[in-house]
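Here we describe the complex-level prediction in full. Unlike the single-chain runs in Section 2.1, the three entities below were treated as one system.
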Amino acid sequence: MPIFALLDCNNFYVSCERVFNPALEGQPVVVLSNNDGCIIARSNEAKALGITMGEPYFKCKPLLDRHRVRVFSSNYALYGDMSQRVMEVLGRLEPEVEVYSIDEAFIRLPAAKEEGLRILGMDIRTSVRRQTGIPVSIGFGPTKTLAKLANRLAKKHPEHGGVFALLPESGIGSILKGVGAGEVWGIGSRSTRKLADHGIRTAYDLSRANETWIKKHLSITGVRTMHELQGVSCFPLEETPQPKHSIACSRSFGAPVTKLGEMHEAAVSYLTRAAEKLRQQQLKAGCLTLYLATNRFRTDQPQYANSRTMTLPCPTADTALLIEQASRCLKELFRPGYAYQKVGVVLTDLMSGHMHQPNLFSIPRRNRDPLLQALDRINQRWGKDTLQYASAGLSKPWHHKQAMKSPSYTTSWRELPVVLAS
DNA sequence: TCTGGGGTCCTAGGACCC
DNA sequence: TCTGGGGTCCTAGGACCC
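The structure predicted for the assembly as a whole is:
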């Protein structure tokens, strides 16, 4: 029986900041979401102060100030690049790896004894730490769900040295009795409540639950999770990433937007980003959705949210053509008199960029692929938005907040760290 | 004053077809 | 009063993940 491992970077975003700013070691550190909105990463010291995940920044700012917590805006250029380094190290060590998220990877291994796995886990940990500076934890189990759980336990109990194996020979059942059902991968807050109402409180209870009841209330995915807890693998390793079904880009505004002109600039900017992603993955979109919304937390203000989806005359990855359609959507959706907080675009009906299905009634256009390729190459070489569409605006008063961002140490020549010898 | 963003899967119900 | 049955496709909404 093969074994799964889950490697998870500890407090990933905080660890990335620490690699290039070692003075942050041992200090409480947090990283904020886009627009400096919520807490999305905390160092152990920050967790110990009682700062919770997802808490709005403005609400916990007094506490952060009081304890001199170091606060950072999110720096995705840095985190993305560090993630790639971690995955590269892992890829050199292990042949069967699935990159699951920015800070997690599953590994498939041949059957092994607990002691062998511990040694392997320690080796991987040491290599990743030495080659990237990022600390990681590793959990082993006969299924992905159990490996996830083992990883959680590795983090929760530091005495295991960041590596933990959950194997039949060490008695999975007794350990599952000490784990809440809501801590299981795939069981969110709604399902946790539903399960508790039915007397299912621990991971062990869930592994022994009535399958028909689970199917009815948690659907087929709940049944799979239940089987995985029993040690029956239902989620295979997926080494090759599946092509995307949708590509989206949206941001909250740094300050409320009331004018159609500013809204249009923002929409064009996000659409530009989405189209870049589309071309990067060699895809075309057949469908475009644009949505906008006021701030739903401001119940004292008039609320409005709406979206419009349109099928494109012809599938495309051409930013200019997408802008044309999105502008029409926006004109239909926009209502004056509201303080808008957000606009976003979603591209769907994605297909391979090599496929070509011309519209019978449209006049064939000149092939603009070389133009788009040149545009992407220039922006890649000289930095984001070196060339941009004029309709994205120049001063961008709506731009999201990012007041405490660290330098892009590894992805921008201008922001390279400087080392001084004394 | 200030509350993120991107993505997936599943199901139920309606529309439609023969 | 009494109004078929089986199938597919699409969409919206719910739930989950990081």
